[in-house]
Amino acid sequence: MAMNPESGLPDEQREKVSRRTFIKGASAVAAVGVVQIPGAAAGIDKAGVEPDILGPGPVSIRLRVNRSDLDVEAPPSTTLLDLLRDHHGLTGTKRVCDRGSCGACTVLIDGRVVDSCSMLAIDAIGSEITTIEGIGTPENLSDLQQAFIETDALQCGFCTPGMVVSCTALLEQNPSPDRDQIRQGIAGNICRCGTYQNVIEAVEYASRKGGK
């Protein structure tokens, strides 16, 4: 049986101890609901000042969403997805897998594609957040949203908002993407109805019109 020189324990036993310690620590954080502010992981910031500890009770969270400032009191453990849906009524951002795998909850943070189920709301403070509601409305669709309708790129609709957000970001960065670039742009978005070909055609349609 191999011994680890640093711990004095067999490798197999040391691995079990590490896993047990991690699980117990993670469980404690989840139970208490306390969050350390970003940049304070080491316990003391660069200026030598101890960081603020938020929680477990509600705290004031102001976010810049779709060009408007929104204020709410919520626990610091609240995800961005929960804050948008449950506190601000922005239900276009969908909860599907709830683990950052499907892309249905995609939003833009300063123009960057982010799975909102995997981000704490307090980590988005100071950033510009764009949801599907900020891209277009039923009365004033974006060119890309209209293209989704024209090419029948939506079926059940659960993936559609996140897909539109990802494609919007793609066209912002590359107004004339080829098909491989479009596929790469939607690689993080799962369509359970399998309308990927129609989504590609929608992006091409919007690109030809010179819109987003």
N-to-C SSE string, H for helix and E for strand: HEEEEHEEEHHHHH
Low-confidence parts lasting 5 or more residues at pLDDT below 50?
Answer: 5-9, 11-31, 39-45
- Please count the helical segments: 7
Q: Radius of gyration, rounded?
A: 21 Å
**Any idea of the CATH topology of the largest domain?**
Ubiquitin-like (UB roll)
Q: What is the CATH architecture annotation of the largest domain?
A: Roll
The main sheet orders its strands as: 4-3-7-5-6
Tell me the structural class.
Answer: alpha+beta
Distance between the termini: 61 Å
Overall geometry: elongated
CATH class of the largest domain: Alpha Beta
Number of DSSP-assigned strands: 7
- Share of helical residues: 25-40%
User: What percent of residues are in strands?
Assistant: 5-15%
Largest sheet: 5 strands, mixed
Average pLDDT level: 84
Number of domains: 2
Question: Helices and strands in order, then pairings?
Answer:
Blueprint: H1 11-32, E1 35-36, E2 53-54, E3 59-65, E4 68-74, H2 80-87, E5 106-109, E6 112-115, E7 128-130, H3 132-135, H4 143-150, H5 160-173, H6 179-185, H7 196-209
Parallel strand pairs: 3-7
Antiparallel strand pairs: 1-2, 3-4, 5-6, 5-7
Helix pairs in contact: 4-7
